[in-house]
Every structure is written in C-alpha cells, then in structure tokens.
Specification:
By secondary structure, this protein is mainly alpha-helical. It is built from 16 helices and no strands. It is a multi-pass membrane protein.
C-alpha cells in the first residue's frame, strides 16, 4: 500500500475547518468589518495550529489509535479528563447538529422535500464514508475540496470583480472603534479552526509526527486562505446595512446565500456559490464526524470491526440528528457556543498535556513544538480569553452587531 500523501491529510484538516463555520464568519464579523475580522482570523489560525502541534507532541508518548480520553486521563487524571470529555463531545455534537440543521434547509429546498427528511437522508448518505474508513474520508475530502475550490473560484471571481472599495472599508461610524467587535469574532473563528479531534487520527494515519505536523499546517493554511478571500469578497459586495436580516436569521446559510444572490447578477456565479455552500457543509460534517467517531471509539473501547464501527457510528451521529430534528436554532449561535466550549480541548488541555509530559521527559526527544513554555502559556491565555469574550458578549458587555 502506498504511503498517504501530505496533501490528503491537509485536505482532511482543511475539510474539518472549511465548512459551515466559514459561512458563519461574515455574520460574526459584520460588526468589526474587514480589517479587524482578517486580523482576528489570522491570529486564531496561528494559535490553533500551535495548539494542535502541542497535542501532537503529547501524543508521541503513546501508542497509535490513542486519543484524548486515554492520554488526558493518564496525564491530568479523572476530573480534568471528565471535563475534557464533556466539552469535546459537546462541541462535536453541537457542530454536527449545526451542520445537520443547515443541510436540512439547503437540501430540503433543493429537493423540494421536508427539511427534517432531508436532514435524515443527509446523515445517512454522508456518514457512510466515516463508517467505512479514514482512507474513504481522505478520498471524499479531496473530491469535496476540489468541488469547493472550483465553485469557490467561480463564485469568488464573480464577487471579486464587483468589490466596491468604499463598501469593503466601510463602518457604521468612521470615527467608531471597531476593535471590541473583533473580540466577539474569536469564538466563531476558533471553531472554524477546530480540527483537534482529528490530530490523533492524523498521527495514526501517517505513523509519523512530523508528517502529521505538516498536514496540520497545510490544512490550517488552506483554511486561512479560503477565509480571508471569502471575507474580503463578501464585505466588498454586501454593505453592512444588509447584514441586519442575516444576523436576525441567526446567520443561517440560506440567509447569507439569499443576500449574496441579491448583489450578484450572474446565474452561474449564484449556482457556484450554492454549490460551494453545499460542499462546505458536507465536507465539514464528514471531517468533524471522523474526529468524533475516532474519539468515541477510544472512549467507549469499541473494536475496529464492522459491529464495533456501527456502534461508534450510532453514538456519533444519532444524538445530533435527533436534536436537529426537534430543536433547530441559529447557526452562528451554535458555532459561537461551540467555540467557547472548544477552548477547553483545543487550547487549554493540549497545552497542559504538553507541559506535563515535558516535565516527565525533559530530554525532549522526537517532535517538539518550538517556543518552549512561551508557546504553552500563550495558547492557554488565548483559550481563556476567547471563552471569556464569548461570555461577555452573551452578557451584552461586549458589543454585538445587530444591523
């Protein structure tokens, strides 16, 4: 069997990142607008890449197939492990839940069927790749990324040629300080780089931490490129005043696509944007599903057999499907809530794991994240502040743009 390519792994990471979270970034960044939004996304990409590397460094001390549950329980003990398990499963479920809810609206409209039925069909059709194997996800991820790239280029080309500089650099008040709005973006941006449940999958896939490191960096760079181009083109076409209805609709994918359709005259560009939104939701659903699938298999000790994989499939996909059928709500709200909870296992826990294991084995053999304790503490502080910013926004202490 040929060795898996770095591109394949990078596409898996990118597919986890570049999904419905990307579609929520314009709504989340409507208050901060272009410059502050791009800065917030870029800083988040750097910190989330480092935190993923810290987790990868910690995993090198353990057997392959071991994920968060085993390593956290061993290093940080039971209570911390319980908090980590709860936060990871909560975030995985809330993301899958958001993607399933979005898919119901998208495919329900396309197929002219009930959105709930569309959600069920979507889960059955998309999760079969996760049920089969990581390599199946690799292959479908490359295909989905290809669809996303093609549709993204067509759609963005139509938007890019119509960018209005005054719109791109506009603000509610030219004298206003928009930086506080940027703080509220961070939870959504963090979720948009929330690939960490796939780190152990990448390590097991390559059996080489350095190759896994390169795949992680490649994936986050792909995601950052998509995000920046996307945000610039959206903000260059949609005036800030037109984000009111999108924000009021919870930042739903449908609302964003409808608003874009109002400023794009080309039918081919509109269709490309719709295809892109579909591919983004599907790829992110499959990528997140794979990470949660592998995590739960380790947590519950399910064997890598047909029966064992089906059990893991059931506990991975059925709960978020059931919730999406009975209680769908705003997409950006779900993404932001997931981002606040995700700081535990995307930033704080990976940094603590790396720090503890460095103390156990100070010789630092094998893969080590550069920066020493500075990197460790920077990642922890970033995670804590991001969670605090979300809580402050919920309490109306930080300003939230409402149109």
């Amino acid at each position: 069997m040929s060795k898996p390519s770095t591109l394949g792994g990078a596409c898996i990471i990118a597919s986890v990142c570049v999904g419905a979270g990307m579609l929520g970034l314009p709504s989340a960044g409507a208050g901060a607008w272009t410059l502050w939004t791009v800065l917030a996304i870029s800083v988040t990409m750097v910190m989330m890449t480092l935190s993923g590397w810290l987790l990868l460094e910690a995993l090198k001390h353990y057997d392959f197939k071991v994920s968060f549950n085993t390593i956290t329980k061993d290093v940080l003990k039971g209570k911390v492990n319980a908090i980590n398990n709860l936060s990871l499963y909560f975030v995985g479920c809330i993301l899958l839940y958001a993607y399933i809810s979005s898919s119901g609206m998208i495919f329900g409209g396309l197929l002219n069927i009930n959105p709930k039925l569309a959600s069920v069909l979507f889960v059955i059709a998309s999760s079969v790749f996760v049920l089969h194997s990581t390599r199946a996800v690799d292959r479908i991820s490359i295909l989905l990324i290809l669809f996303m790239v093609i549709s993204f280029v067509i759609g963005i080309s139509g938007l890019a040629t119509n960018i209005q500089l005054p719109t791109l650099l506009d603000s509610i008040d030219s004298q206003a300080d928009l930086s506080p709005y940027a703080l509220a973006i961070l939870p959504v941006a963090l979720t948009s780089f929330g690939y960490h449940h796939s780190v152990s999958t990448m390590r097991d896939y390559y059996r080489d931490e350095n190759r896994a490191k390169n795949a992680i960096l490649g994936g986050t760079l792909i995601a950052l490129t998509f995000y920046v181009i996307w945000v610039v083109c959206i903000f260059g076409n949609l005036p800030r005043t037109q984000f009111g209805p999108i924000v009021a609709a919870g930042g739903s994918v449908d609302a964003l696509m409808t608003a874009l359709g109002g400023v794009v005259n080309s039918n081919s560009v509109k269709q490309a944007l719709n295809i892109f939104s579909i591919a983004a939701v599907v790829s992110s659903f499959i990528g997140v599903g794979l990470g949660v699938f592998d995590y739960l298999a380790d947590l519950f000790g399910f064997e890598d057999t047909n029966q064992g994989r089906f059990k893991t499939w059931a506990v991975t996909f059925i709960p978020p499907l059931v919730f999406s059928l009975f209680a769908p709500f705003g997409f950006v709200a779900a993404i932001g809530l997931a981002g606040a909870a995700a700081t535990i296992w995307t930033c704080i826990i990976p940094a603590l794991l790396a720090k503890k294991l460095r103390q156990r084995q100070p010789e630092r053999q094998g893969f080590v994240v550069p920066g020493g304790n500075v990197t460790v503490y920077a990642v922890i502080i970033f995670g804590v502040l991001t969670a605090c910013f979300h809580l402050l926004a919920m309490a109306d202490v930080l300003p939230i743009f409402k149109g």
